């Protein structure tokens, strides 16, 4: 297992090592792409809220804020916002403010001076209670809302599985995998995303055993939002869900009646009555269709489609006394797809409680906003942020890392929104922040004996000149004494030696 070498800021120790002529390394400071992300977090006020205090304040004598900082930097390294895991994070300001630099080492080293194992970061995650991680996540959501870094009231919910090996993880569940023919163990994570274009933000999260009911986890998110943020109806107008397994009762009783918002989903198993009724209405030409063009974000092209709708469709059979559960509104989308060498017509049924007037394609486009969470959110979190890798075997550790990644995901989306490609090359921003980066005054980083210090070129020149002068004097003195030892009697030489060495 690799370790992280931590170089601690200590100018006095480094200066003494330089003057003593001990082994050292030097590097020039540099402000560039590697630091833009961290500097943005600090300048924007997002860095502090990322640091969650564990139950204990230190880990093996190390300040928890430094360990939390390392955890943040490690996650940023995954996604390339810190371009290299070098020994030097080259912005001196960041090193001084954080109090350390990092170095990835190829092989494990024993715990010792200046070396921080990844176990320390895992232990940091483990020491944060699950409820504290969730609370801090929603405090972050509040911060985004105060700064108006999220907009719009259309939300999408989706879930993913975090599979683990074995049963020793706390709070783990199990489900049978029909394809693999075996049980799988792990967790289920549901996230709630605001999908305003160019302002996609993850605004809710719930974690449970892998066999958890997604309805229960979504209800948990709503409860946490109401507890820590605001009333649901003040946060969102409509929620888009992935399939009809949520059920009519849940949608009507929980989403519509309890929280006062609308929903859009695709009819599947729990809406079989809708599909059967609509197919009959299509065959009997009871639905009028419009020919339209619709953009397909996954193919990145427009498609020819037909769209129609029905309002106030009776849904579900309960009994003779109650011949239907309630009413829904449905949009029907017809499009031609390839099947083998031929083509066939595909039908998609969008179920909603929103009354459909005018353009039914608005409902289709609402559902299409799911693409943000499915193909950008979940995939990005899995492939780039490695969110499916558990931080440890405790539920505290699993939750703490997931919440940190979600907060960082939002922060990096905000950075890219505000700066675009500037985070790689904006010289004006760099120039504006240059004084705080010490570029003008401190240009050399020196490493010695597990410590680092920053010096201006003038300071470093004086230290090197002083060291050189001392070494030269010592060598001349040693050479002079050696010659005297050959020329003088022993008693006289000892007297001269004592005077020269005092």
From TrEMBL:
GO annotation terms (biological process): DNA transposition
Coiled-coil boundaries: none
InterPro entries, per database record: RNaseH-like_sf, Transposase_11
Domain Transposase IS4-like: 152-410
GO terms, molecular function: DNA binding; transposase activity
Protein name (record): Transposase IS4-like domain-containing protein
Species this chain originates from: Candidatus Falkowbacteria bacterium RIFCSPLOWO2_12_FULL_45_13
């Amino acid at each position: 297992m690799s370790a992280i070498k931590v170089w601690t800021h200590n100018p006095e120790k480094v200066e003494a090592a330089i003057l003593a002529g001990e082994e050292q390394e030097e590097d020039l400071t540099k402000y560039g792409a590697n630091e833009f992300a961290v500097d943005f977090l600090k300048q924007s006020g997002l860095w502090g809220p990322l640091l969650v205090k564990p139950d204990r304040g230190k880990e093996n004598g190390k300040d928890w804020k430094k360990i939390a900082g390392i955890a943040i930097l490690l996650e940023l390294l995954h996604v390339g916002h810190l371009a290299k895991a070098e020994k030097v994070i080259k912005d001196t300001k960041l090193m001084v403010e954080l109090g350390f630099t990092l170095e990835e080492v190829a092989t494990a080293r024993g715990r010792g001076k200046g070396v921080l194992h990844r176990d320390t970061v895992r232990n940091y995650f483990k020491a944060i209670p699950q409820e504290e991680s969730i609370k801090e996540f929603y405090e972050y959501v509040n911060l985004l809302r105060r700064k108006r870094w999220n907009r719009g009231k259309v939300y999408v919910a989706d879930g993913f599985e975090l599979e683990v090996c074995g049963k020793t993880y706390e709070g783990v569940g199990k489900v049978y995998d029909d394809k693999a023919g075996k049980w799988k163990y792990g967790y289920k994570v549901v996230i709630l995303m605001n999908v305003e274009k160019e302002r996609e933000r993850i605004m809710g999260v719930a974690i449970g055993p892998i066999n958890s009911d997604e309805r229960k986890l979504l209800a948990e998110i709503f409860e946490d939002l109401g507890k820590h943020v605001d009333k649901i109806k003040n946060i969102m107008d409509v929620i888009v869900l992935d399939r009809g397994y949520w059920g009519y009762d849940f949608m009507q009783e929980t989403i519509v009646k309890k929280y006062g918002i609308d929903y859009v989903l695709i009819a599947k198993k729990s809406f079989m009555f809708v599909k059967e009724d609509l197919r009959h209405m299509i065959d009997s030409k009871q639905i009028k269709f419009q020919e339209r063009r619709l953009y397909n974000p996954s193919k990145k092209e427009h498609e020819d489609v037909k769209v129609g709708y029905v309002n106030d469709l009776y849904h579900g059979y309960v009994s003779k006394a109650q011949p239907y559960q309630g009413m829904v509104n449905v949009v029907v989308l017809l499009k031609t797809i390839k099947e083998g060498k031929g083509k066939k017509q595909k039908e998609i049924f969008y179920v909603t409680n929103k009354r459909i007037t005018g353009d039914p394609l608005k409902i289709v486009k609402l559902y299409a906003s799911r693409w943000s969470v499915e193909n950008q959110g979940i995939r990005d979190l899995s492939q780039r942020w490695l969110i499916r890798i558990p931080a440890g075997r405790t539920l505290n550790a699993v939750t703490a890392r997931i919440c940190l990644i979600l907060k960082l995901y939002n922060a990096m989306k905000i950075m890219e929104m505000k700066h675009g490609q500037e985070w790689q090359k904006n010289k004006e921003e760099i120039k504006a922040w240059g004084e705080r980066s010490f570029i003008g005054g401190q240009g050399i980083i020196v490493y010695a004996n597990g410590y680092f210090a920053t010096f201006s070129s003038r300071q470093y020149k004086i230290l090197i000149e002083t060291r050189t002068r001392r070494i030269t004097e010592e060598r001349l003195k040693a050479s002079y004494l050696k010659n005297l030892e050959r020329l003088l009697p022993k008693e006289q030489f000892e007297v001269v030696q004592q005077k020269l060495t005092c």
